[in-house]
Amino acid sequence: MNLTLIICAIVITVAFVAFVIEAIKTFTQLRRSAESIEILSMNANNRINTIDTAIETAKVISSGISSGWLKMIAGIMGLFAVKKAKQKQSENAEGNRKDTE
């Protein structure tokens, strides 16, 4: 009976040592994974910060469009277009007068 208890105690001790070794390996791998995830999250944070500047620029542009800057620019361009159209019309009229003479 003593021999059976000693063998059981040895088997349980070996199993416990194997469990502890596997637990240490698992926790080591978890630590490495956590460090990798931390590095990836810092990298992603930097990329998001660079995207934030583009988003802010888009906000400024959209607020400029909605505040009327676009309408003002379009109005100025329209004035130049009307002036250019009048010049072409006067040139065409002069060309028609010369053709009729």
- Structural class, from helix and strand content? mainly alpha
Strand content: under 5%
Shape: rod-shaped
Element-level helix/strand string? HH
Oligomer category: single chain
Question: Termini distance?
Answer: 137 Å
- Integer average pLDDT: 82
pLDDT < 50 runs, ≥5 residues: none
Rounded to an integer, what's the Rg over CA atoms?
41 Å
User: What is the tally of helical segments?
Assistant: 2
Major β-sheet annotation: none
- How many domain units? 2
Q: Helical amount among residues, as a percent range?
A: over 70%
Question: Overview of this structure, please?
Answer:
This protein has helices spanning 2-67, 69-100. The protein has 101 residues and is an all-alpha fold. It is rod-shaped, with a radius of gyration of 41 Å. The mean pLDDT is 82.
Short description:
The protein has helices at 2-67, 69-100. With 101 residues, it is mainly α.
Keywords:
101 residues, mainly alpha, 2 domains, 97% helix, 0% strand, rod-shaped
Q: How are the elements arranged and paired?
A:
Elements: H1 2-67, H2 69-100
